[in-house]
Amino acid sequence: MGDLIKEFDNPNFSVERYTKQLVKECVGGPDLQKKKKEIQAYSDKTSATLKRSVYANYMQFIETAKEISNLESEMTQLSLLLHEQHNILASLTDGAAAKTGEDNDKEFHNEEEAENMHATRAVKEMVQGFNGNLEGKTFLCEGALTELDSNDYRPVQRVFFFLFNDVLIVCKVKHDKRLEFISEYDPKKIAVINIKDLNGVKNAINIITPDGSKIYQSITPAGKTEWIEQFEVAFRWDQQQKKPKKGPAPQPPKPNNSNNLTVDISPTDSQSAVVRKEENMAPDWIHSATDEIETFIAQRHFEDAESLIKRCKDFLQQSKTFVGVVEIEEKVMQLERQLADVLLQELSKCHARNLEVALRSTRRCLQILVNMGKARQASGTLLKVCSIGLRTAQKEARKNNAKISELFFCDLAQVACAFLLSFESQPACVSALVVWCNAELQYFASQLKKHYLTKGSHLESIAKCVEGVRKPCAKLTEIGLDLSYHLEGLLRADLEDLINESRLRLLETVGRTDDPWQPFNLHTKSNLKRLLLELEVLGIDMRPHTTGDTWINLTQSTLNFTRHYLQLTNHCAYLAKSEALSKSCQVLLRDLIIAQHSLKPDANLSVDPNFVAKNKQFLCEELLPIAISIFRRISGSNPDILRTIGIIRQQQAAPIPKKRSVYQTDVF
Amino acid sequence: MSKKPTAGPALHKVIMVGSGGVGKSALTLQFMYDEFVEDYEPTKADSYRKKVVLDGEEVQIDILDTAGQEDYAAIRDNYFRSGEGFLCVFSITDDESFQATQEFREQILRVKNDESIPFLLVGNKCDLNGIRRVPLAECQQRAQQWQVPYVETSAKTRENVDKVFFDLMREIRSRKTEDSKATSGRAKDRCKKRRLKCTHL
């Protein structure tokens, strides 16, 4: 096996070549079979190992998944920040002309603050060994650079800079990507030199600090330019901060009410929001709401996002007069769409190996989507998910030879229950469920035909299969889902074909064996007893026909036929539960008994005509009525076609043979 | 030969100083790439490095092209500290730029604390002799007063461009050999001595 593993692990492994080689090497079938077994064993072992290693690293998987989703949300936050900055810039350029300068300024301050908070937090969280106070500083730029040796320009180490208005924090990037604080500098004491030409070293800057001059390399030219500009901003910070204060009206940085409002995002505060509406100013929470919603979506707090959207919509309905209402409304609508999209996507990913698990995991998304009025989209997606679950389960069950019919209808019931739970009040959705059920049923029927109702199947297995389908299907009526009619319709044509086919095949077998037309000798008492018992179970009492200890006063072929016929009657009766199939079943039974009845002894054989007649009489007068009653009992309908032969037979009945002196056996 | 521990060619650090718009960058680019840049774009602080052959010896020149604008005055100290030689540039068509050289000279001496730091007074834009505003005699007088060479250049015609850089490098080189001959302690003394001598003058 070791060699085998090595061979498979070879990167140049080619299935075709391997197979060819194998065929060449092996002599004869058994050898190949052996090889096949070996490979099979290896495959089993591999999958077992895989399973084991998945279990072993399960926690790690979960953690990684968490980490990824965290990163994802962080990325979204980052993109949000960028977006905000873009917005600020846009509004600043627009606002310069318009009178809304004050507004923008306020906004600008808020954004700036948020950014500062973010950077300050980042420094605190990421940088080991830095204890400086960053309160009240303005964040300007951050990023990784490579420090180069000043003589030969080889990379010395990776560093990470955080630039604030009055401090530059230099950190070393350690091998585990953590940052280690090296030192901090006052940007006013830093000289930055743009290295335009350094023997081919690209994107380098020279930073001269009181500790000396060092060369740093940026990855991109844009990064280098950005750093040079930001260092300049930091350098000139004080000059610049003075300028705006010399501007038109030295306004206090924050008016009183805006100060209160920044914290006002709690839903309980709608009262004050209404009060402020009179000033035609939107409450601040609604301005920040869109960002908040975005963050909620990114962090997968869908419920919070939904409730906040709802709150925004409610508010927008009440008042549409404040500044910027159109943009906010638009944004909220857009976010609502986004949330719905995300949820639907989430929902569509819910399919698990187990339908029940899948259904449970969809519940949360469903609830929110229904609340958002997206029930129709949600129901469609849910049903798609269920289809996948259902079909996978079917495939599995088929592989394991389990009862697929019961599984199917149980699953169907489960889906229907879960569906009705979520969408009961939505008639449109319920009809979608019905359509879906029919579609799934159709698929199920096609699978059934493909795998179980194949040509040449025996009536017995067909009857079992159909019975197995009908029972659970009928159970669905308990939850108000009647699929029986549809199911019968789907299967009818195929079943009829199968029954006809069976009929022809069975007719061929009648009279195949040469019958000596002699009473049947079973040789031992126990044999006789067994035969009698067997037939009794099938519903016919043969005791009156026994003679002596081991004889039955009928031919062996009659007895065989009796047994076979009664079994077939059973199967046919089950199939005939559906009225549509009753006719072909009865025709089968009728034709069969007529064929048996019309058997004639070979002309060369000297037989007792009375004995022949007795056999025929047995068929008409004993077997047929019993068959009819069995059929009626099981199928629940009157076998009219079978009964017509009964009448015919009686008309043609041979004269009753004389009673023979009969020896009574003690077998019973 | 340089006595530096590094194996590579000797490195001479030159700093361009002077008011804004006198042609520091133009001189630098003409020296570096033999091209004359017509567009004016204020420099912040750019550095260039080039291998040249100085009197048969391969050396590296590092040119720091600084900002002439007044608002950078505060940061100049940081740059000046790293310089080994200075080209103090003014435009012969702009008297104000000539006056400003006084200020630059003082700042350099203050930062370097060395009266004999390699230093060249460079009157640029000599191709525009027709609109000259600073008389040649005045320039030479100032150079003499500082005890530094005075050279007139044109970044446009490349006149004397190589000369100013090479002359400065020679001075830097001779200063370095001088310094390495003396022990570090005495070098410091000599610095003081020079300063004293200067005050005597």
Structural description of this entry:
The complex is a heterodimer of chains A (668) and B (201). Chain A has 668 residues and is α+β, with helices and mostly antiparallel strands. Chain A is built from 23 helices and eleven strands. Chain A has helices at 2-9, 15-25, 28-56, 58-97, 101-126, 221-235, 237-246, 256-261, 270-277, 284-298, 302-318, 325-348, 355-371, 375-399, 404-423, 427-451, 459-475, 484-509, 525-538, 556-575, 579-597, 609-635, 640-652; strands at residues 127-128, 139-148, 155-164, 167-173, 179-185, 191-198, 204-209, 212-217, 520-521, 546-547, 551-552. An eight-stranded mixed β-sheet of chain A has the order 1-5-4-3-2-8-7-6. Chain A has a three-stranded antiparallel β-sheet with strand order 9-11-10, with no helix packed on it. The longest helix of chain A has 40 residues, at 58-97. A six-stranded mixed β-sheet of chain B has the order 2-3-1-4-5-6, with helices on both faces. Chain B is α/β, with parallel strands linked by helices and 201 residues long. Chain B has helices at residues 24-33, 73-80, 95-112, 136-146, 161-181, 184-200; strands at residues 10-18, 45-54, 57-66, 85-91, 119-124, 150-152. Chain B is globular, with a radius of gyration of 17 Å. The A-B interface holds A 151-152, 188-199, 206, 208, 213, 228, 232, 235-236, 239 and B 6, 8, 32, 44-51, 64, 71, 74-75, 78-79, 81-82. Chain B: Its EC number is 3.6.5.2. Chain B: It comes from Musca domestica (House fly).
